[in-house]
Specification:
CATH class: Alpha Beta
CATH superfamily: Methylglyoxal synthase-like domain
Strand order of the largest sheet: 3-2-1-4-5
CATH topology: Rossmann fold
Distance between the termini: 10 Å
Structural class: alpha/beta
Helix content: 40-55%
Largest sheet: 5 strands, parallel
Number of domains: 1
Strand content: 5-15%
Length: 136
């Protein structure tokens, strides 16, 4: 599965800790992330992360475009509800995930639920959906 990782500035450390805790699960999947978040995850965990631009420079939009093309199977986006306006806007990401049936976590509690579901194979329907749409 293709898993996108995004974290607002004040949540980047939490994202790194999350990835360290679930490294064995994440290692079995393709990871994509906004630039700075991806770099921090790679450095701390040794996991391979395909990195886009930093969030404020369009990285979140790059991930959103891949959701629209059915190339992302899960989004873990740790958002800071008190973030300043320069943080990536979540509304388009939320809308696209809803439109394309992509599981989305905006906090660590929901991310844990999704990771455990992923480890159990509960989200295999995403692979079937992608194969039936002709996008592999």
């Amino acid at each position: 599965m293709n898993i996108a990782l995004i974290a607002h500035d004040k949540k980047k450390d939490l994202m790194v800790e999350f990835c360290l805790a679930y490294k064995s699960v994440l290692a079995k999947h393709t990871l994509l992330a906004t630039g700075i978040t991806g770099g921090l995850i790679e450095e701390a965990t040794g996991l391979k992360v395909n990195r886009f631009l930093p969030g404020r420079e369009g990285g979140s939009e790059q991930i959103a475009a891949r959701i629209a093309y059915n190339e992302i199977d899960m989004v873990l986006s740790f958002r800071d509800p008190f973030a300043q306006s320069y943080e990536p806007d979540m509304q388009s990401l939320l809308k696209l995930c809803d439109m394309h049936t992509v599981p989305l976590a905006t906090n660590v509690a929901t991310a844990e639920a999704l990771i455990h579901s992923l480890a159990r194979g509960d989200l295999d329907y995403r692979t079937i959906m992608r194969e039936n749409s002709g996008i592999i």
